[in-house]
Amino acid sequence: MNKRLIRLCAGVGLLAVLASGCQSADTLEGQRRTWERNPEQPVTFAVAGRIPFLTTNTDFMDGALLALEEINAAGGVAGRTLELAPYDDEASVMKGTIIAQELSNNRSLSAVIGHTSTHVTIPVSTIYEDAGMLMISPIVSNSRLTQRGYGNIFQNIPGDDDIGREMAMYAHKQGLERIVIYYADNEYGRGLANAFEAAADDLNLQVVDRATRFHEDTHFRRALQKWQAMDYEAVFVADSMLTGKEFLFRLQEAGESPAILADAGMDVDFIHTFGEYGEGAVLASLANMETGGARMNQFLETFQQVHGKAPDEWAVQGYETIHILAEAVNRAQSPAPADVAEALRMITWEGLTGNIHFDSTGRVAGKHIYQKRVVNGRFVYELLDSE
């Protein structure tokens, strides 16, 4: 990560949260008004979540920093320099809550980008909403995030219901009729598994079984015998690579080779992790890196020049999220979270993945869900015409 482009917030931490409670509302609002009116003060977006995921496991932050460089080179936002401030919640609800309280009381912050774990993002979003702080999630796809009528919460990623439906329709198109669902036993995994199963039922596909993490090998063997007896053809993995890879490794060790369908959560070094066993696997994808148009091609070329490698789709998510927030600040001509949120609901922005806008609930529209298949050690992209 290019650390020179990120100014770490000074004095952050639990002490700052506690200290903020001793200040009066008038003092805090006065600080915000002073910041809003001072063009010498930067516009800051916090990036909260599991930082290793954003900087090491994926290219998210590299994409975000590329957008930051472009924006500042073009004059910044609303005449101000743009900065990013990272906060690592370590996928902990407790730490995420402390960070959310701290950022909500930060009177020189325009927006929070985050968090990266569903079990953290859902509860802390209420803290941001109540405090009037704009939060946008480019990682967490749980549909509940934008189903509560909140005015400050946005989701720059298609919801689990859309992803589950698209992947079930893809299975149907491929003639796969008997499918095992393997899911993470958390809000993310259950929500996606439920969406896939509901769509599969509508399409008359048979969900042979639903399974979550196997703590004992004997449990896996019993389940596998059941699936084999029912002539299962495919597995749909509703899990992240961090934990979902264990399931596919078990299948590989057992000599099983069903068709593999998976969510974008498994798209973290998938090809390198599974090698030949991953051939033919199909993952949900948030971007088409092959035929994405002129803007996508320019992004791919620039990213390759800067980093010496092709970006992953999380780089696209980081890049687009920074740019669309910056566009909202420019439209509002104000860094205040309430003004940026209002502008964000009104704009349509031509991004790398389509004409992006947000509906009345704060949920993104205009993004397609692609499928990408592993063919000869590389991804080949497809778009299911489900409309």
TrEMBL record:
<feature type="domain" description="Leucine-binding protein">
    <location>
        <begin position="56"/>
        <end position="373"/>
    </location>
</feature>
<keyword id="KW-0813">Transport</keyword>
<keyword id="KW-0732">Signal</keyword>
<dbReference type="Pfam" id="PF13458">
    <property type="entry name" value="Peripla_BP_6"/>
</dbReference>
<dbReference type="InterPro" id="IPR051010">
    <property type="entry name" value="BCAA_transport"/>
</dbReference>
<dbReference type="InterPro" id="IPR028082">
    <property type="entry name" value="Peripla_BP_I"/>
</dbReference>
<keyword id="KW-0029">Amino-acid transport</keyword>
<feature type="signal peptide">
    <location>
        <begin position="1"/>
        <end position="25"/>
    </location>
</feature>
<protein>
    <submittedName>
        <fullName>ABC transporter substrate-binding protein</fullName>
    </submittedName>
</protein>
<comment type="similarity">
    <text>Belongs to the leucine-binding protein family.</text>
</comment>
<dbReference type="InterPro" id="IPR000709">
    <property type="entry name" value="Leu_Ile_Val-bd"/>
</dbReference>
<dbReference type="InterPro" id="IPR028081">
    <property type="entry name" value="Leu-bd"/>
</dbReference>
